[in-house]
């Protein structure tokens, strides 16, 4: 395996696994999906959207100030958490996932752009960008493989509504705290 690919794959993977804001958003999306078809549409929309803005941002075509991107990511966490509490039906959730995926992709790129700038001048951006993006996807799949089966068990024992509501309230609250911290530049 190419060393650059492997390095950037690991960076992308750990960005998801260690990125609590992206984890919270992803978990909030997963806990309300009831079947593989719903899961596939939500995750595919999120993946296509974040991959698009990740590529555009990494290539310097799209650029958002980090305070805006990070604040919007926090807002996305608040939104999906609240939506899970007030709207138990999740038809069209793929639209929400895709829309906020555009913002999350810009956030992913913030961590990648500085590293890639040197490679862009050498014309060698495809391998690192592909590795990073596939690492993100592997991280997402790892989260899905943990959360989706747990939610299947929760449904099996008739506790879905309670768990989704309580977990979503916590996710929304954490997102709210992150939003305030990011908007006002508070260092916790």
Characteristic terms for this protein:
188 residues; mainly alpha
Question: Can you give a write-up of this model?
Answer:
- Helices cover 83% and strands 0% of the residues.
- The protein has 188 residues and is an all-alpha fold.
- Helix 2 crosses helix 6, helix 2 packs antiparallel against helix 7 and helix 4 packs antiparallel against helix 5.
- The longest helix has 31 residues.
- The termini are far apart.
- The model has no long low-confidence stretch (mean pLDDT 89).
Order of helices and strands: HHHHHHH
Discrete helix count: 7
Poorly predicted segments: none
Shape: globular
Fraction of residues in H or I helices: over 70%
> What is the gyration radius calculated from CA atoms?
17 Å
Q: Give the class from helix and strand content and strand pairing.
A: mainly alpha
How many structural domains?
A: 1
Percentage of β-strand residues: under 5%
Largest sheet: none
């Amino acid at each position: 395996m190419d060393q650059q690919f492997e390095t950037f794959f690991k960076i992308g993977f750990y960005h998801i696994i260690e990125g609590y804001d992206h984890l919270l958003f992803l978990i909030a999306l997963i806990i309300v999906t009831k079947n593989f078809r719903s899961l596939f549409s939500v995750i595919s929309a999120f993946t296509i959207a974040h991959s698009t803005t990740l590529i555009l941002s990494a290539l310097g075509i799209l650029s958002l100030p980090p305070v805006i991107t990070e604040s919007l990511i926090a807002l996305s966490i608040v939104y999906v958490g609240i939506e899970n509490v007030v709207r138990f039906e999740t038809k069209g959730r793929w639209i929400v996932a895709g829309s906020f995926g555009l913002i999350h992709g810009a956030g992913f790129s913030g961590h990648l752009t500085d590293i890639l700038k040197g490679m862009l001048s050498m014309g060698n951006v495809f391998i690192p960008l592909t590795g990073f993006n596939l690492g993100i996807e592997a991280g997402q799949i790892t989260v899905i493989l943990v959360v989706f089966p747990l939610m299947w068990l929760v449904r099996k024992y008739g506790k879905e509504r309670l768990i989704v509501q309580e977990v979503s309230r916590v996710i929304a609250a954490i997102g709210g705290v992150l939003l305030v911290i990011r908007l006002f530049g508070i260092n916790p």
